[in-house]
Structures are given as C-alpha cells and as structure tokens.
Amino acid sequence: MSWLPLLVKASYFVAALLFILGIKRMASPKTAASGIRWAGAGMLVATVATFFLPDMHNIPLILAAVVLGTVVAWWSGKRVAMTDMPQMVALYNGLGGGSAAAIGAVELLKFSAATHAGPFPVDGAAAAGIPTTALVLAVVGALIGSISLTGSVIAWAKLDGRMDKRFVFPGQQAFNALVFVAALVLGALVVWGLDQPAIIGFFVAALAVGVLMTLPIGGADMPVVISLYNALTGLAVSFEGYVLQNEALIIAGMVVGAAGTMLTQLMAKAMNRSIASVLFGSFGASGQAAEISGAQKPIEAGDVAAMMAYAERVVIVPGYGLAVAQAQHKVWELTQVLLKRGVKVKFAIHPVAGRMPGHMNVLLAEAGVPYDLIADMDDINPEFPTTDVSLVIGANDVVNPVAKTDPASPIYGMPILDVVASKNTVVIKRGKGTGFAGIENALFYADNTRMLYGDAAAAVGQLVSELKAVDGH
Predict the structure, then answer these.
(1) Are residues 276 and 312 in the same domain?
(2) What pLDDT is recorded for position 260?
(3) CA dist 100 to 49, 155, 234, 441, Å?
(4) Domain membership flag for residue 72
(5) Where are the alpha helices (DSSP H) in 117-171?
(6) Model pTM?
(7) Is 471 part of the annotated catalytic residue set?
C-alpha cells in the first residue's frame, strides 16, 4: 500500500493548482463563478484524499461532521439574502480561523501530554523530541486563528445590527495592548513548558484580543476588517498545516492569506487609511463637525424620468440601500431603457460601497449588468463634471463631500465618488436618515441635488414606467 501516500500528495498538488487557478479566475466578474467552482473542486479533492492518509482514525465522527457541515452550509447558502451576505462572509471567516485555532489546541494538548504523562515526565518540548518550529507555529497559528474567530463574530454582530457599530472606553488601546502582550507571554510559556494552565490561559487571552480589537472599529471600516480577518484565517490555516505536515492546508492557507492581505491593502488605500489606523485609531478626526445648511429638496419620479430621458450621460451609483431593496434587477431594466434611447450609462463603484469587498459588483453581476458598464472610483471621478444626471441609489458615506471639505468629520480623508460635481444629482432614499457612519450627508443638501424618497426597487420601477411613457410605450 506504499502507493497511497504518493497518491495523496499528488491529489494535494492537483488541489493546490485548482485553488490557485480558482482565485485567479475570481479576479474578474466574468469568470468569478467558474473560479469558485474550481476552488470548490480543489477542496473536494483535498478532503477526499485526506481520508487515505495513514493512521487516520475517528472516521465515523469525521464523516458525520462533513455531512452536517455540508447540509448546514447548503441550506444557509440557499436561504441567505444578498443583504446578509457580508454577515455570512464574516461568519465563514471566523469559522476558518476557529478551525485553525482548534487544530492548534489539539496539537498543543497532545504535545503537553507527551511531556507530562507517564512515570518519567520530561521538562519541556525539546526533551520530549518535539520540533521547536512546529511548536512555535502551532502557537502562532492558534493565536491568529483565535483572533480571527472572535473578531469575525463581533464583525458579524455589528453588520447584523446586534450590537453598536463602535464600542469605546477610556484607555481602551492601552488595555487592548496589555491583553495582547499577555497572550504573547502565555504563548511563550506554552512553548517553554507546555503546561496545560498556560495553554488554557493563552487561548482565553487570544480569544479576548479578537473581541477587544474589533469592538472600537466603526462601520465605515468594516469592509477592511472583513478582508483582514480573511487574510488572518488563511495564515492561521497555513501555520497549522505545517504542524500537521499537510501540504494542502499549507498551500491553501498561504494563497488565501496572500490574496486577503493584498485585498486589505487595496481597500485601505482606497479609503486613504493605513491598516494600523483602522485597527488602532478612530476614523478621521475628532471634534465638532461643521453644520450643513440648506434643506433636502424632493422631486417626483416623472421629473426625474424626463431629466434622464434627454440626458447624454447618466452615472448610476449603487449602495447598500440597493441591496436592502433587492433593486439590482430593476436598475438593470432602467439601464436598458436608457441605452435604447441612446443615453450613455455607467455604474460608479466605490471600493468600500456596501458592507464587504465587492458587494456592489456581486449585486450587479447577479442582475446581468455587463462588466464594461462598471467603472471604479479612480476612472469615473474625472467624468462627473460632464455627467448630466447622477443617480445615487442607497449610497451615503461614499458620496459625502464632507470627506474632502470638513477636517472635523469622522470620515475626513476617505476618498469618495465626486457625485457632487455632476450637473444634476438624484438620490433615491427611504428617508432622511444617516449612513452607516452616522453622519449627515452634505450631498443631499447641495443646490444641484434632488431627493426621490421611497423604496429603491419601487422608485426605480416608477422611473422605468415613466421613461417608457416618454417613449409612448
């Protein structure tokens, strides 16, 4: 049976290729769906191959866990609404980190038993013949995985509205630093002596770090946080894969960790923020923000339709309100009507629009919007001054001009879509509430802005009907 280990390693190599090719295909909306299937196939190959490893035991328990996890994931994936997708991504990030932490816990307890059990217990891991590198990586992977687990759960609770978007108290950063240092010290003690009390204390401190680190982070930073925890989960899995000497875990974890790290850097750059300022600072400046003068000016759907019907260029800016109303299909119908009239239409996407990276791209792809109509912030911003009508649907903070004009604003310094520079702006919004950052939007009070109040899907449906009436259909 000596051919079995070789077959398993060959399967892991195939799985690794599928992981890498799958993530590569996820880089484009046109091939993202197939990329997910490729990566899923790689995970299936790696999972099946693992059952043929030598010394596998507890097979019935493993199969029961696989079946249970598959059923729950399939059921929840089918039922989840697009508005709840960020919460699900956060939870899955946490589950991955929790799995890595659990592997670390099992291995550390196993190492501890090897050093302290029997009539002649040995003093430390080295005396028991445990490789120092494996022990250190088990601790590091468990630390990162624990932080990702509890941090992702807090992110989920914030995104789902189950807790305040920000939770701060005096001396918070100093307290957090002390807890993190305690986790490092306990981790060092685990490496030194593998005592069970030190292992338990280490995991308590590590889990606390994830909670404390995420509590003060505001809603505007949440897409960066989700991306960061995704990267941490990948790194934790890779480290624990080394401990288990499992090539599939090492490669998959490193690929996810590298992709997540690059995405986190891109997201932070798009917000003109450093990752350190997201984790350890408050967004923007503190102080008394400037008051916004004027009033929001309502408009009727018929007037908006006439404005758009005779426009040369229209830019549509989707936001979280579009996701809440499930209005993406109606928006694509509106776009098709405008295109038939010869109007040039583009979609402007802010990197952190919505509640997770790529949220708006996913919604538009689901509705069938062609990728060549979608423009990112850097490409579309120079075009706003020549845009006849900008239609903002549910977006708030990412189009708020105070990010450039008010140093005391909580979002000051965040790059925004320059919608305010358009000749005319129409904002579809349920009411006069604030965005996820909890501040007023100066765009809504601008002279060239009109407010079309109502549910996004219903309002866009009205616009479609009015436009067709203009054409005499």
Answers:
(1) no
(2) 85
(3) 19, 19, 9, 42
(4) no
(5) 132-159
(6) 0.78
(7) no
